[in-house]
Hints:
The complex is a heterodimer of chains A (321) and B (278). By secondary structure, chain A is an all-alpha fold. In chain A, 76% of the residues lie in helices and 2% in strands. The relative contact order of chain A is 0.11. The mean pLDDT of chain B is 88. Chain B is mainly alpha-helical and 278 residues long. Chains A and B meet through α2, α4, α5, α6 and α8 of A and α1, α4, α6, α10 and α12 of B.
Amino acid sequence: MTTTTAVRTIASRPPRFRAVGRTTIRRSQRRAIWLLLLPFLVLFVFSFVVPLVYAVVESFFTEKRSGLGIGGERAFAGFVNYVNAIQKTDLLEGVGRVLVFGIVQVPLMLIVALALALAVDALKGNYPKFVRLSAFLPYAVPGVIAAILWAFLYLPGTSPFVAALANVGIDVDFLSSDVVLWSIANIVTWTWTGYNMLVIYSALTGIPQELYEAAAIDGAGAWRIAWSIKIPLVAPALVLTTFFSIVGTVQLYAEPTVLKSYSSAITSGYTPNMAVQDVAFGLNNYGVAAAMAVLLALGTFVLSFGFLRLANVITARRAAV
Amino acid sequence: MPRFTSRLFIRGVLFLGVVYFLIPIWWLLTASTKSSSELFSSPPLWFGEDFALLDNIVAVLTRQDGLFVRWMLNSLIYAGGGAIGATLLSAAAGYVFAKYSFPGKGALFGAILASILLPASLLVMPLYLLFSSLGMINTMWAVIIPSLVSPFGVFLARITAQESVPDDLLDAARIDGAGEIRIFSTIALPIMGPALLTVFLFSFVGIWNNFFLPMVTLNDAELWPAMLGLYFWGSQPSELNYHFVITGSLLSIIPLAIAFISLQKYWRVGLTAGAVKI
């Protein structure tokens, strides 16, 4: 009884009153939106938008530097910087290197991460805590430190592996030009496998138990359940980890930069990010460096979104079947 | 496959994984107890005859008038200050994206997320030029200001606000006459608290590990963070230098290792969010 009267009172309120109420809320909310969002937005514009615009603009200008390096003549150059950037064999080699690296390292790392996540999940409650902790530890080791650590594990004087392999008659130089790319791949794999494993594992723990019980009643064994239920259901986590691995691969920088001091096989333009930095600060050629960086950004967008499209198509097709 | 062999196989896989993850750390622990000559003469994965850990630590801490201590303090300032700022800014921005609607919201959020894809080299060079025209090159601000922006933090804060802050509660506070800013700071922020710790941790680690930006913007060794300093020490690979680099590396990961192990619960929140939500 009371509720109906209450409803009726609200409904019979003069419309003008409600409209006024709503606009005052709107105004105070609009102020709040600005106040809360502005600090972030200002810094976001300063550290992302302005540099992006700056780099794009800079990539279309050349600067003829006078002797002191400042106050040179600026001239619009069209796509000259881009042509120069592409003709730099350094950049193309770096891109090729990073692509080969990514095609091998990313799937390998994620397969290992998936296998470990499935293994931890299968052993419910037995060791997982210890395994999880040791898997996460490498992620707590900064990229620079990981690279320094592995550099010592590769250097013949301090490496346990070089000595052990020599004992069985295998001579490897982890820092030679043939091998060093895969030595870097190992550092990246070491750092990120555990992290990715935990992302996949937390997706696994979100799968409802009833699904397994239903499958077991239908006669599915543990391997069958892993293959037909667990892996398809953690597909979003796999897509996500692949996506971030692709972005990370394109940006490869800290590990090769550190190893460069230990291996003469690593040049100053070994990866695209290193090449951009070398052209910008080594050669002081901002225009070409900016063009290279813009191309690199475009490449990252194409690769990562191309992958997302592909993943969507595949999941859609699976769902249709 | 019979159950027993299957379990054995799974344990074998896990054992290999754990060995792979721990070997470099174990090597670091043993190597930092060795004097620089024993580094080469003793077995690489076991302790040497002398236990020189303390000597090594003293050597690292006193080298070049305690420069390493300075680097660690700098890292704490950059990572601590940057992460606190990034967490607060992300919380406010994420809350706005979760709880208000305004024109262009979707596009703005998309742009913020897409910025994750921009290569560091694209941003660092213009930032260098920008900071030098502002006279801020070679100051702490050149590292701290860009660190305050965390797109992933905004993403995480938005999810948190959507899931944990009920709209009814906000409406009730509005009816009681609370202002929007007060609602955010006294009602929403405390509810978002635990998840914000995750944002803080992720930012802290990100800034602690950052290397590209400080390398470009800081010339003065007194201002370097530990990562840049250790890189510099490591870039002079003389064998007499090795034990400084090794023991310094060990000391520099201890704060992070402690943060990771003691705050495991909060990491898992971030990982789950990342796994499920995109």
